[in-house]
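Next comes the chain:
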Amino acid sequence: MTRVVIADDQPLVLAGLQAIFAHADDITVVGEAGNGRAAVDLVRSLEPDVLLTDIRMPLLDGIEATRMIKADATTAAVRVLILTTFDADEYVYAALEAGASGFLLKDAPPERVFDAVRVVAAGEALLAPAATRRLIEAFVQARGHARPDAMRLLAGLTDREREVVALVGRGLSNADISAALVVSEATTKTHVSRAMAKLQARDRAQLVVLAYESGLVHPGGS
């Protein structure tokens, strides 16, 4: 059973999410929070698998809540899924940088919500929506240059690991990467894991961010 804490400052949203999850046999809501501070406290006390949180909340926003959760060794394993109203929300990119595993639009159908929670709970990043990649591209392009620290991290990768990170950055799944490189999925998974360790990336979402911020993948590239 996947245990979820939901956080939003709108009671109607919380009630709606509770109603949605009541129909999922493998997901249970173990706590609700009306602000980011309460969300962090609940995550620390309840140790859920996933925090589903809004960004704009009083006391502590979803970005800072994510950063605090990921910085704490006791809660770093909790996956954070960001709820947002717009797929171009300027704060979503900052949330991904802070350690969120992806984002979900508030008007998503119940099946999409279930799938999103299951994906991040399984340790993957919710990067399938094209909107996620467009968002990352837009902010990296706006910056106008690669981050030197991100570029330095790439120096520690093997050629194959760099190739794999570039493909992850372009949105390919492990199965897609395996097909492109003509290797087994187990081999691809090993390359991804090693690259994440060397780049100090928390998860696949962080790999995508680093792929763009280091200049390994360029906005608008295929």
